[in-house]
């Protein structure tokens, strides 16, 4: 597996991060990897970790605004992943892509509500 390509004027970690987001948004990342690894595994792990952190902060009686800010911090990333799956699935077509789109939307609802 090769490292993501860097783009002109980008280097190091910043270039890889930009390449990561760009490939997902443009639909060039494989749909299976995007759905299962990025959305289901990593996205869910991030949401669980941030929710645990928010509960710890709440237990420490920190201001509610801070606790809510921490709890909802991954929401933009969640929307990004969901729309990236949607865009990539549109390019792929087929029943599997449609099911992954439905799964991504249901996942988004689940992680935003909980």
Describe this structure in words.
The mean pLDDT is 90. The protein has helices spanning 12-25, 31-59, 64-72, 75-92, 95-113. It has 114 residues and is an all-alpha fold. The N and C termini lie far apart (35 Å). The chain is globular and about 50 Å long. Among the domains are: 28-62; 72-113. It has five helices and no strands.
Give a quick summary of the entry.
The chain is an all-alpha fold. Among the domains are: 28-62; 72-113.
Question: Could you give the topology of this structure?
Answer:
Layout: H1 12-25, H2 31-59, H3 64-72, H4 75-92, H5 95-113
Helix pairs in contact: 2-3, 2-4, 2-5, 4-5
Radius of gyration: 16 Å
Give the overall form.
Answer: globular
Strand content: under 5%
| Total E-strand runs | 0
Question: What structural keywords apply?
Answer:
114 residues, 78% helix, single chain, mainly alpha
